Amino acid sequence: MKFISRAEWGARAAHNGHPAVPTNRGVKVHYLGGPYDAGEHGTCAAYMRKVQNSHMDGNGWSDFAYNLAVCEHGWVFEGRGRNAQNAANGNTTLNRDHFAVLAFVGDSGHTAPTAEQVAGLRDAIAYLRANGAGREIRGHRDGYATDCPGGPLYHLVTSGALEPDTAPPGPAPDQPAEPTPARYRTTINGLEYGYGAHGPQVREVGEALVRNGFGQHYQSGPDEDWRDADTLNYQQYQQHLGYGGQDADGVPGEVTLQILLGRIPGQPAVSLAHVVQAARTDPGAAQGHQTHAAEAQLVEQALADEGFLEQHWVDGSFGTRTIAAYAAFQRTLGYTGADADGIPGRRSLERLGIGRFTVTN
Ligand SMILES: [Zn+2]
Ligand SMILES: [Zn+2]
Fold it and tell me: pTM for the full model?
C-alpha cells in the first residue's frame, strides 16, 4: 500500500480523540460530491488539508471525517486512521457500524475512479480489515439518503471490484449490471433487505410488490426470507419507476421503499406540520403544555441524544427549552438568523430523524 501518514500530509491535530471501534461490520465508500478535477499528485496533500479545514472549521467537527482517503493516483492518506469512529456515514450508529473511506471523486469533473484509485481503495479496505473491519463493502447511500458515493463508484462497490482478494479491476462503470440477480444486502433504518435478509420487513415488501402487480417471479411466498425472486420482482418495480442500470438492481433504496410502502419500516413517523404547530403553540402556553406530545417527544429525544437538550426536558412539550435546543441544532447545520429560530423545517427535521423517525407532511 502506498500510505501517507497524517504527519506526512501535514494534518492538524484533532480537537479531541475519537472513540475507538475495535471491530465492526465493514467499510463504506464515499466521494467528495461537488466538482473535483484530477491533478498532479503533488497537490493531493494540500487537498487533504483543505478538506480537513472544511470539516473542522466549516462543519465544526473534531477532525477530518473519514478513516482513510484515496487520491486518484492510488495513494492512501491516513485520516482518523484505523479503529477510530468516523463522522462520515450519517449518524453515530452508522459511524460505528462501518469505517469510512473517501475517494477523491467528484460529481462532476473526475467522476469515475482511476485504475490506481481502485487499487488504492482495495488497499485501504484490506488495511481496515486487518484492523478489525468486517467483510461488508458498502456505499454511503446504503442506509442513508444521499447520492454518495456517486454512480460510477457505487457500481464498483456493488460489483465486487473493491474486494481486496480479487485481482483484476472490476468492470468499467458504464457496463450494464450483471445478468444474475444482485446478491448483497442493504440496511435501511436498521432492517436488512436484499438476498439473504430475513424478517417481517421482507414479507411486507413482498406483499406490497404482489399488491402492485410485481409478483410474477414468486413460485411461492412471499415470506420472511429474501430470495432471488424478491430481487427480480423488486427490480421490475424499480424499472417501472423509471430507474435503470445499477439503480434498478432489485435491492431496495430508501426512496423506492418509501414509495412502495408509504413509510420506512422500523421507525415511527413525525409530521412536520404537527411539530411546527407544537413549536408555535407550546412556548406561549402553560408550562408543560402539549400539542402533539408523541411526535414532539420523538424530536426532543433526538435532540437529547445529540446533546442539545437535557433528558429532563424530553417531556412532549415543545417549550422554550426545546426551541432553544432545536435552534442550536439548526446552527450546527449552518443555518443562521431567522433560519435558526428553533421552528423545525423539513431539511433539519429529516436530518435529525435519520435512523430515528420518518418525516411526513
Ligand atoms: Zn459519503
Ligand atoms: Zn494523489
Answer: 0.49
Give me ligand 1 centre to Cα 89, in Å. Answer: 6
Count of domains for the chain: 3
Biggest alpha carbon–alpha carbon distance for the chain: 68
Residue 39 and residue 219: Cα distance in Å, rounded?
Answer: 53
- Centre of ligand 1 from the C-alpha of residue 15, in Å: 22
Ligand with the closest atom to the CA of 34: 1
Q: Is residue 172 part of a domain?
A: no
Query: Residue 130 belongs to a domain with what CATH number?
Result: 3.40.80.10
Structural domain of residue 351, as residue ranges?
A: 269-360
Which residues neighbour ligand 2 (ion) by CB within 5 Å? Answer: 41, 44, 71, 73, 75
Note whether residue 176 is domain-resident. no
Which are the contacts of 286, defined by CB distance < 8 A and separation ≥ 6?
none
How many C-beta atoms lie closer than 10 Å to residue 155's C-beta? 24
Distance 88 CA to ligand 1 centre (A): 6
pLDDT at 336: 93
Mean pLDDT of 183-207: 90
Q: Which ligand is nearest to the CA of 90?
A: 1
- Assigned domain for 53 exists: yes
Are residues 141 and 246 located together in one domain of the fold? no
